[in-house]
Design brief:
Blueprint: H1 3-28, H2 33-49, H3 58-79, H4 83-88, H5 90-115, H6 120-131, H7 135-144, H8 151-177, H9 187-225, H10 228-248, H11 253-265, H12 268-271, H13 274-294, H14 300-303, H15 306-327, H16 333-342, H17 348-360, H18 369-391
Length: 399
């Protein structure tokens, strides 16, 4: 092992150690770990900038680990999705979900495309990024108040899960759109949207056939051949194959990872691997956010402007108002306000959307978008749990 490889291994090992230790400390402080992971990446970038000699291969290694992080994050979201339960409670949740996704997405698009004129790709990517939410940020406050099992808590989880699913599908569409040359919204329908819907329908059908006819047989065969601790590795490998096929089919690996998680979520035997997969998730998921921070350049701060402030306000108000108005038809005003506030945080899917868009078409995304979205994630993920904790009742009566 040469000096460069040794330095890379040392740096990555320190990052893992700090990320895992920081995760526990930040949870106690009611701050989402992703905040610390992004900061680790930023500090690492600044520390290495002070060196006279760069460490060759480090940036590429972090980039690759970040891509693995994208896979485990999206696979984990799919694995924990409960589509069967969602179908049972779709009525109220879908009403809130559709309204909040349309309002938050439309607000972002209008600001970027019509008000500031940053072009169609930037408008679509930012709109999709703002439709996502991160319920994991608010869940700890609801659990601490023993409110997650209430009617409002279950409604919150259902709306958030629908947000996740729609945001991931919209992300795939957005990534397809920004690779086209269409300059007007309506020109995209025939050139991109309809072909995309056809291709993704075939892909979803293939995933359904895998889930219905092959997944359980394959998992049972693997169980007979391998010990339980090795089963998660084999299932992860199959999921990687599905994600790679999605990438080869013109979709993002993130979309494939999500559908791979969905394919296994309905099988009780496969779901047993979730506890084992947590180790893989804890190891690799921080690297996605570390890679985001590592890609943050000092000059990016200069790109933050009045537009960034407007987008931050739109991110907060779009999601809050978009949930509040329909929620008032379902629950009382106080519960509607708490639910709406809990839907404001952005995290994984928002950053995955911006990251993938920058990777695919960096020339079409304005330089200020990435640092602005980092600001949105840090601000909403840090502040919302504080307010939610204070607003939630200590002993809710609606169980």
């Amino acid at each position: 092992m040469n000096n460069a490889h040794g330095a890379i291994l040392l740096i990555l090992s320190i990052c893992v150690a700090i990320a895992l230790l920081g995760k526990s400390l930040l949870y106690r402080a009611r701050i989402p770990p992703l905040t610390g992971w992004i900061i680790i990446g930023i500090l690492l970038k600044y520390a290495l900038a002070l060196r006279e000699q760069p460490i060759g291969g480090l940036a590429e290694t972090i980039k690759v680990l970040g891509q693995i992080g994208v896979f485990v994050i999206l696979f984990n979201i799919g694995l924990h999705s409960k589509l069967g339960r969602l179908l049972e409670y779709l009525g109220q949740a879908s009403f809130i979900w559709i309204f909040n996704v349309v309002l938050s997405g439309a607000a972002g698009f209008i600001i970027m495309y019509y008000l500031f004129g940053f072009g169609l790709p930037a408008g679509i990517v930012v709109a999709v990024a703002l439709t996502a939410t991160s319920i994991g940020v608010s869940v700890s406050a609801w659990e601490e108040a023993d409110a997650l099992d209430t009617r409002e808590g279950q409604l919150l989880l259902d709306v958030a899960e629908l947000d996740d699913i729609s945001s991931i599908l919209l992300m795939a569409l957005a990534l397809a759109v920004i690779q086209t040359r269409a300059a007007e919204p309506f020109a995209l329908i025939g050139s991109t949207v309809l072909p995309f819907l056809g291709r993704i329908s075939v892909f979803i059908l293939a995933c359904l056939l895998f889930t219905r006819f092959l997944e359980k047989r394959l998992t049972c065969s693997l169980q007979r051949l391998e010990p339980q601790q090795d089963l998660v590795i084999s299932i992860s490998a199959v999921a990687l194959i599905i994600a790679s096929v999605a990438g080869l089919a013109g979709f993002s690996i993130a979309l494939g990872a999500f559908f791979a998680g969905l394919a296994y979520s309905r099988d009780p035997e496969a779901v047993k691997v979730q506890s084992s997969f947590n180790f893989i998730y804890d190891l690799f998921s921080p690297f996605f956010f570390i890679a985001i921070g590592f890609g943050f350049n000092p000059t990016d701060i200069e790109h933050l402007s009045g537009v960034s402030v407007v987008l931050l306000l739109v991110a907060v108000l779009g999601k809050f108002v978009g949930n509040l108005i329909p929620a008032l038809f379902v629950v009382d005003w106080k519960q509607a306000a708490i639910l709406s506030l809990s839907m404001v945080p952005r995290a994984e899917i928002t950053m995955v959307t911006i990251h993938q868009a920058n990777r695919i078409a960096p020339d079409k995304i304005p330089a200020f978008v990435m640092p602005t979205m980092i600001l949105v994630v840090l601000a909403t993920s840090t502040m919302v749990p504080v307010f939610a904790t204070r607003l939630l009742p200590a002993n809710p009566s609606d169980h």
